[in-house]
From TrEMBL:
Domain HTH iclR-type: start-end pairs: 7-66
One Pfam short name: IclR_C
UniProt xrefs under InterPro entries: GAF-like_dom_sf (IPR029016), HTH_MetabolicPath_Reg (IPR050707), Tscrpt_reg_IclR_C (IPR014757), Tscrpt_reg_IclR_N (IPR005471), WH-like_DNA-bd_sf (IPR036388), WH_DNA-bd_sf (IPR036390)
Entry keyword set: DNA-binding, Transcription, Transcription regulation
All copies of domain IclR-ED, residue ranges: 67-233
Designated name of the protein: IclR family transcriptional regulator
Native source species: Rhodococcus antarcticus
Lineage, highest ranks first: Bacteria, Bacillati, Actinomycetota, Actinomycetes, Mycobacteriales
Amino acid sequence: MGQHSGIGVLDKAVAVLGAAATEPCTLAELCARTGLPRATAHRLAVGLEAHRLLARAPDGRWRPGPALAELATAASDPLLDAAASVLPRLRDITGESVQLYRREATSRICIAAVEPPTGLRDTVLVGARLPMTAGSGARVLLAWADPQTQRQVLSDAAFTDRTLVDVRRRGWAQSVAEREPGVASVSAPVRDATGVVVAAVSVSGPVDRMGRRPGVRWATDLLAAAEALHHRL
């Protein structure tokens, strides 16, 4: 089972990850590769699946999950390096919470966030998975998503395809009490070096501070931050 840390359950979980990383495997193959009892291997594999470190292929074989790729990318991610410089400045300008989201299938994941030091705030934890059916960040990511994803999400969304047309025309999106009561937000697309939208940068906070039209107040600063992220990529 390789090196030992002295923490038995951790060593076994790492062994399970390593076994599935070699090539997709059945539970029986997982047991053979790790030497673990069937019940133990199954329990660990299911737990790792819950954390998205393992996933199951359509044929039921275990394989590496998407969280492993996210962790590997985060170890050397130009977007996160850029965010470390740009997001705190946007937070200081607006005095509100700032987030960076990536789309994964029909969800969006917060990959970076900074909070104002005091006052009521809209806290979104890094790693949080939010729906694509509500919120300005969702509108932005969906506006530049592929048509199939758009059709899949729009059937349950709080906005329409016309909304996405307006987002693309304007270059940013806003929402008020759409994702969460009392919260307003404004978001803009972040493009990589080739011009492809790879993320959405957002400013969010209480409606009482952000107002019913947060884009009027913060769109210019938000677009400048999105452009700064683009240049760093």
